[in-house]
Design goal:
It catalyses: N(6)-[(R)-lipoyl]-L-lysyl-[glycine-cleavage complex H protein] + glycine + H(+) = N(6)-[(R)-S(8)-aminomethyldihydrolipoyl]-L-lysyl-[glycine-cleavage complex H protein] + CO2. By secondary structure, this protein is of the alpha/beta class. The protein contains 15 helices and twelve strands. The chain folds into two domains: about 260 residues, Aspartate Aminotransferase, domain 2, CATH 3.40.640.10; about 130 residues, Alpha-Beta Complex (Aspartate Aminotransferase, domain 1). Bound molecules: pyridoxal-5'-phosphate.
């Protein structure tokens, strides 16, 4: 109240405020978008949303000295208050079901409702990983069928289904490489990673115990084959290459890269997170790749981020298959599907496994959704999806490259994502300003400052699921923001103005995060 009075505002008289608001409200709410306080500020100690029986004072204390002495300090809310708190917060969020999510490298595509319908069928939704194998033959059949499709689509020899994210899949692939090298008594130390790699690639190699060395990119944004060849030698365990790469370009020399690496006894890991650009058109197996993860939550339309868990199956070459993790499914000559675990691995000739990636079989709910997506599209539909994804990205690239600098725009069409830089912005204007301006225009920002090889990069991936009308609206917003960035519009530097929170001090937030609520603060 005070603040509003201090600003001199009277009902009906427009007063611009810090956030560009013409008509402040006494509640802080903006029409039906409600302001929300922290749950600890809302809660009261004397309230609880559930009725619990009073503990029996005569019951023996089985916690001994570990019994809690002080109050638990939980925020007490009634059930309706709790529901409203989280519903209000959810309305401040953005989601693929609300609008375009142009996050490059993330393939934020529509999650078809058919996937959800199938995943909720009781026979799929209610299976438990500890059920006797005889009672889950159908679920094993789903895993096996999906594995079959992934092998077919990639032209590889086998697949490890258990990794639970792309990065987890990378680790699985690199552990296979390490096991294969150890099996031949070859203690190689180095993994080569191009400059344009996704951050998870060097992180994975380092986590698996390797020294990571950079390979430079050519001015065209691709791996420098000559530099790679020059560095290859008997100490190189392998390379990790993203294809299509994070500049949105296909690595045309992939086969030559693989051949050169194999020649010195190394292995080729391909980061397949961008498979959405080439699905049904290029088989990584034909390019000499030994291991590649597939993000079911990107290419195969299963929910992403806050929407659900990821899933990162890894397809493997014949050379790496023997080292793949347990468990996996195997189709027997009589058509039954067996689960191969430690106790029967020898029967299946799988004695050199490096171990396990997960306690159980992987993300069953995601397998069901991804297989539904695959079967509802068919081979021709998947091929069309990748073509449409590339078409949409090129439509964005060519609708914006006269205004925004497109570093590799002259080298030909892009794949599934279009890359722009901040080159040509007015002094003091940055990629961050454009991203924050996009929020005001009702779009989730694109991927910013990645890949690192381009200054102030903006990586935009529309995916095939956006209509031309949506793309045109996005282009209109981007063109307006591009013009404002070039003109040095001061108002863009303080965007967003219409979001529930204005621009935050990101350095403060990163360096002095307040992670726990304390009433004393
Ligand atoms: C998303 C992504 C990853 C990591 O996948 P997660 O499922 O997020 O672990 C790796 N590489 C690239 C190129 C990606 O886009």
């Amino acid at each position: 109240m005070n603040q509003i009075n201090q600003s001199g505002w009277k009902p009906g008289s427009p007063v611009p405020t810090e956030h560009g608001e013409q008509y402040p409200t006494v509640t802080g709410n903006k029409a039906l978008m409600l302001e929300e306080r922290l749950i600890f500020e809302l809660g009261r100690r004397d309230t609880c949303g559930v009725d619990l029986p009073e503990p029996d004072p005569a019951a023996p204390n089985r916690l001994g000295k570990f019994a809690r002495q002080q109050a638990l300090n939980l925020p007490g809310l009634s059930e309706p208050e709790t529901v409203r708190h989280y519903t209000r917060l959810s309305r401040q969020n953005y989601a693929i079901d609300l609008g375009l999510f142009p996050l490059g490298s993330c393939t934020m595509k529509h999650n078809p409702r058919l996937n959800e319908k199938v995943a909720r069928m009781p026979g799929f939704a209610d299976v438990h990983p500890l059920q006797p194998v005889d009672t889950v033959r159908g679920a094993l059949g789903v895993i096996n069928e999906l594995a079959h499709w992934l092998i077919e689509l990639t032209g590889m020899h086998g697949v490890a289904m258990t990794p639970k994210a792309g990065a987890h899949g990378e680790l699985c692939g690199v552990l296979c490489i390490r096991a294969a090298l150890e099996a031949r008594g070859d203690a190689r130390k180095v993994v080569l990673v191009p400059e344009s790699a996704h951050g998870t690639n060097p992180a994975t190699a380092a986590f698996a115990g390797y020294e990571v060395e950079d390979i430079p990119a050519t001015p065209e944004g691709r791996v420098d084959l000559a530099a790679l060849k020059a560095r290859l030698g008997p100490d190189v365990a392998g390379v990790m290459i993203t294809n299509p790469n994070t500049c949105g370009l296909f690595e045309r020399e992939m086969k030559a890269i693989s051949d050169a690496v194999h020649e010195v006894g190394g292995f080729v890991y391909c980061d397949g997170a961008n498979f959405n650009a080439i699905m049904g058109r290029v088989r990584p197996g034909d390019l000499g790749i030994d291991a590649m993860h597939i993000n079911l939550h990107k290419t195969f339309s299963t929910p992403h981020g806050g929407g659900g868990p990821g899933s990162g199956p890894v397809v493997l070459s014949e050379a790496l298959c023997p080292y793949g993790p347990l468990p996996f499914t195997a189709k027997m000559p009589d058509g039954t599907i067996q689960l191969v675990e430690e106790e029967n691995a020898a029967e299946h000739g799988h004695t050199e496994t490096f171990g396990r990636m997960a306690a159980f079989h992987g993300q069953m709910g995601m397998f069901t959704r991804a297989l539904t997506y695959i079967l509802s599209h068919g081979a021709d539909g998947l091929r069309q999806a990748s073509g449409d994804a590339v078409l949409n990205a090129n439509y964005l690239l060519r609708s914006l490259d006269d205004l925004f600098d497109a570093p590799f725009g002259d080298t030909g069409p892009c794949m599934h994502e279009a890359l722009f830089s901040d080159h040509g912005f007015a002094e003091g204007m940055s990629t961050l300003d454009v991203a924050k301006g996009l929020i005001d225009e009702g779009f989730h920002p694109m991927t910013m400052y990645f890949p690192l090889v381009v200054h102030g990069s903006m990586l935009v991936e529309p995916t095939e699921t956006e209509s031309k009308a949506v793309l045109d609206q996005f282009i209109t917003a981007m063109r307006s923001l591009g013009e404002r960035a070039k003109a040095g519009d001061e108002a863009l530097k303080t965007a967003p103005h219409h979001a529930p929170r204005a621009r935050l001090d990101e350095a403060q937030a990163a360096r002095k995060p307040v992670l726990a609520y304390s009433a004393e603060v």
